[in-house]
Amino acid sequence: MLVKLDDPSLLSKVIEVISEMVTEVKIKINEFGMGITAIDPANVAMVNFRLPKNAFSQFESGNEVLGINLDSLKRILKRCSNRTSLILEKRDNLLNIQVQDRIRRNFSLNLIDIEGQEKEMPNLDYSARVEIASLDLVDSIEDCSVVGDACSFIIKNGQFIIEARGLNSARSEFSGDEAKIEAEECKSKYSLEYLQKFMKGAKLCDKTRLSFANDHPLKIDIKTEHMELNFILAPRVETED
């Protein structure tokens, strides 16, 4: 297996986001490209990442599954700059990582055995779908984190509302002019600790797509020309005061 990225910055940023959820993953490399699917240890959130074959300038691989410690990989990827290219090559039980710019630098990463069945993103039904500017979403989540540890996603009277309520409160309202809203009225509450982690991924693209329903898992879709990043987050179901 040997694959090459002429600009590894996107991969580096995504790995940094995923590493905040899980410490070890299976990276799949096959005829379609590179992929990661993982569930966090608390079984609250799931992440799915796809980097298609056409994102690579060189791609020679069959079906490979690489057990990787993400903290180790993240540290190596941070050694890349915008002017470097990245080559990943599997040899026996090692992943050789070559960073090429003015000079050639080489790293070796020990591959690990990761137990557990292969994970797949579930197919869920949603009553609300919202496409929103990523910067607006990030700001709204940050507003809510100032006053609480969870926020609600609400569809009401044709508006999309992000709200945190407790002793203090924060609220952002979006009409059809600020977001694309295709939804029935519904409400679901989610952990801000996880949402703040996901927002680091949302910053990688201009628009973010949200899918949810009443007390239902949230799906976040982040796509660019050469990348797809998805999150699923379990709802926080609580008794209303």
Are there runs of 5+ residues with pLDDT below 50, and where? none
CATH class of the largest domain: Alpha Beta
Mean pLDDT: 94
Q: Outline the biggest β-sheet.
A: 9 strands, antiparallel
Count of separate structural domains = 2
Encode the helix/strand succession as letters.
EHEEEEEHEEEEHEEEEEHEEE
Strand order of the largest sheet: 6-2-3-4-18-17-16-10-14
Please tally the helical runs, counting DSSP H or I stretches of 4 or more residues.
Answer: 4
Summarize the structure.
The protein is α+β, with helices and mostly antiparallel strands. The chain has two domains: about 1-110, DNA Polymerase III, Chain A, domain 2, CATH 3.10.150; about 130-235, DNA Polymerase III, Chain A, domain 2 (Roll), CATH 3.10.150. The protein contains four helices and 18 strands.
How would you describe what is shown here?
The chain folds into two domains: 2-110, DNA Polymerase III, Chain A, domain 2 (Roll), CATH 3.10.150.10; 128-233, DNA Polymerase III, Chain A, domain 2. It is 18% helix and 47% strand. The chain is built from four helices and 18 strands. It has a nine-stranded antiparallel beta sheet with strand order 6-2-3-4-18-17-16-10-14. A five-stranded antiparallel beta sheet has the order 5-1-7-8-9, with helices on one face. Strands 13-12-11-15 form a four-stranded antiparallel beta sheet. The longest helix is centred in the middle third of the chain and has 14 residues, at 134-147.
